[in-house]
Amino acid sequence: MTDRLIIFDTTLRDGEQSPGCSLNRMQKLRMAETLVQLGVDVIEAGYPNASQDDFDAVHAIAQLAQGVTVCGLARCNEADIEATAAAILPAASSRIHVFIAASPIHREMKLKMSRAEVVERAVKGVRQARARCADVEFSAEDATRAEPDFLVELFSAAIAAGARTINVPDTVGFTTPSEYRELIRLLRREVRGIEHAVISTHCHNDLGLAVANSLAGVEAGARQIECTLGGIGERAGNAAMEEIVMAVRTRADQFGVHTRIVTPKIYGAARTLSSLIAQPIARNKPIVGQNAFAHESGIHQHGMIADRSTYEIMKPEDIGVPGSQLILGKHSGRAAVKDRLSQLGYDVHEAEVEPLMVRYKHLADRKKEVFDADLEALYLGVDPND
Ligand code: KIV
Ligand code: ZN
Fold it and tell me: What positions does the domain Pyruvate carboxyltransferase occupy (predicted)?
């Protein structure tokens, strides 16, 4: 099995579908440029039959994006597939992603179709898409709540009809890592023609398990991950790309796969998205949050000064974060205070440390964060808050 993990970015489709994250055509183009530079393999640029603006955005990205596969989403019906085929036409490398719901609840309540009708519609959709594009992906929406034997039948039929990628969405974020791992293993064992297709994960984050479930899928043999920057997406979002990429990189021995992502561009890309959707990145967000490489407790700061790997499992520069930060606050100790003063150019004598720390703790108790100017003033004998 290949060790190349395909990163299928759906920030501009599933991500953009989340409340407050919609982007206009120019913003989508700007973000697509960033994603290309980041090194994603596939950009799902939108759902062309949803609106003229979405069609235009996918078309414009297909015209401009180089070195990436541009994909559009379509239901298994002629109008969606034709619109998608037309939108992606200018791309040097393109894909049509067709989907139909697979679970009993979706079949009965939404589609009002039997299992046989769903298979028939899926096969027709994949064939139509294949007539317009050599690269077709098929998704069984709500796969994790569908009967496994039905998924085997549906995916086998989709591959026979020409799908190159079969995607196993956890549409409502319901599965767990062990269950998803078993499902992917079963599909690898039982789907006919699976050796000619790539298995893909598409996990939502309703129970906070999207990244863990995606990684479990990789352990079971999935070689494409569908994800979004910052994990934006429907409801609680999709699997966060930066977390997946850094997990497989940091734990390379465990996962045995690699991506094409230029990791030092991750932080800049996350900030570009944040400014385009006008939503701040949560401070405690893994990898790209302001606190991801910030240390406040005295014990941790002491360790960090001795050796960064005591409390950091990744290097901030590998993600494009300017550097680790030792935040001076009420939990900081003498090691961090002395270290900061020495960075500010002061040679602190041992005899000065004790009285300085008494004044420092007094100030830190009243302030959330002690800034460099506060510390300098304290050291020079002036308490700025007196
Ligand atoms: O969550 C989902 O099932 C989807 C499909 C359209 C792939 O987004
Ligand atoms: Zn989705």
Answer: 5-263
**Ligand number nearest to the C-alpha of 172:** 1
> What residues line ligand 1, using a CB cutoff of 6 Å?
14, 99, 139, 141, 167, 169, 171, 202, 204
Look at residues 227, 177, 178 and name the one whose alpha carbon lies nearest to residue 204: 227
Q: Are 57 and 29 in contact (CB under 8 A)?
A: yes
> Which atom of ligand 1 is the closest one to the Cα of 143?
3
> Which residues partner with 43 through β-bridges?
9, 70
Task: Indicate if the pLDDT at residue 384 is higher than 80.
Answer: no
Residue 302 labelled as part of a binding site:
no
CA-CA distances (angstroms) from residue 377 to 212, 329, 344, 381, 383?
47, 16, 12, 6, 6
For ligand 1, mutation pick of 139, 170, 203 (most atoms within 8 Å of CB): 139
The predicted complex's ipTM stands at 0.99
Exposure of 291 by Cβ count < 10 A (0-12 exposed, 13-18 middle, 19+ buried)? middle
- Count of alpha carbons within 13 Å of 213, Cβ hemisphere only? 29
- In this structure, the residue with its CA closest to atom 5 of ligand 1 is 141
Phi, psi of 36 (to 5 degrees): -65, -45
Residue 267 has pLDDT above 90, yes or no: yes
Using alpha carbons only, give the angle 307, 309, 313 rounded to the nearest 5 degrees. 160
List, for residues 328-363, the tens digit of each pLDDT value: 999 999 999 999 999 999 999 999 999 999 999 999
Residue 185 is classified by DSSP as H
From CA 198, how far away is CA 210, in angstroms rounded?
A: 20
Mutate to test the pocket of ligand 1, among 167, 171, 225 (most ligand atoms within 8 A of CB): 171
Percent of the chain with pLDDT over 90: 96
Q: How far does the centroid of ligand 2 lie from the alpha carbon of residue 320, in Å?
A: 28
